[in-house]
Structure formats: C-alpha cells, structure tokens
Amino acid sequence: MGYKSWFETHAQKHEALVAKLKTQGIAGEALVAYFVFENMVKCEPDFCPLYARGKKCHDRAYLNCFLCACPHFRFKDEGLHVRENGVVVKSVCAANARFAKRFVYEGVEHLDCSACVVPHNKAFVRKYLGKTWKEAMQECEVK
C-alpha cells in the first residue's frame, strides 16, 4: 500500500469514527480522551493494525492516536526527489524534527518518525479538533 492509498483509507476510517462518536455526544476534551492509545486498543481494536499486537507506533507513556500521521509529514508516492546514489526519497519531515530518522528499503528512502512525539500530545491534538483528519492532514502530500 502506498502513502496516498493509506492516507485516503485512513481518512475515511477516522471520519466515520469521529462521526459515530459525535452522535454519542463525544466531542472536545472527551474526544481527545477517547483517542488515547489504551482506550483505542480496548474500544476500537480494528482502527490500527498495531492495536491487535498491543504495540505503540511511538514508545511514549502517553500516546494520543487522533492524528495518526503528523501534519509535518510530507510524502509523494512517485518520489519527492532522487539522491545522487539513485535512492528515491518518498517522505520527509517539513518541520525538520530533530528526532526524525530515515531508512532505506529496496532503493527507497522513508521517514521514520517513531522517536517523535509532536502529533501525539494533547496540546497538538487540541489544535485540530474542529477539523476532520483529512482537513488536518491536507498539506501532507506534496503536490
């Protein structure tokens, strides 16, 4: 699955879950609390493939899953550019986060954000509560 197809699939899943929660009266701070990792594993086990293994994408005590991908994550399935060594770069961090790492697999460089905590804390999530996940992520794909 490429970045674009994952993005579209996850946007639909997120929008459906938020709509369901809103019909149950869950909004604002209650929505932030609902998306905490431990609650999502228990209440929404099919939302993320890592939930079935009880595994977090980031090794943090507090992990909020509302913004599963970070608005600073930029991607392009066909590649952003090609390095001198022929490696195709498909994703980067627009904020140049100091915790961002890169890995190369089969000639393609990907961003490894697993050490970053930016999109998974309460303050960051609160900034995007009035938007759908897709709206919050609108700038993710490099056009």
Features:
143 residues, alpha+beta, four-stranded mixed β-sheet, two-stranded antiparallel ribbon, 5 helices, elongated
Written overview of the protein:
The chain has 143 residues and is α+β, with helices and mostly antiparallel strands. It has one domain. The chain has 5 helices and 6 strands, in the order αααββββββαα. It has helices at 3-23, 29-34, 37-43, 122-126, 133-136, and strands spanning 73-75, 81-82, 88-89, 91-93, 101-105, 108-112. The strands form 2 sheets. It has a 4-stranded mixed sheet, with no helix packed on it. A hairpin with a 2-residue loop joins β5 (101-105) and β6. The chain is elongated, with a radius of gyration of 16 Å. It starts with a helix and ends in a 7-residue tail after the last helix.
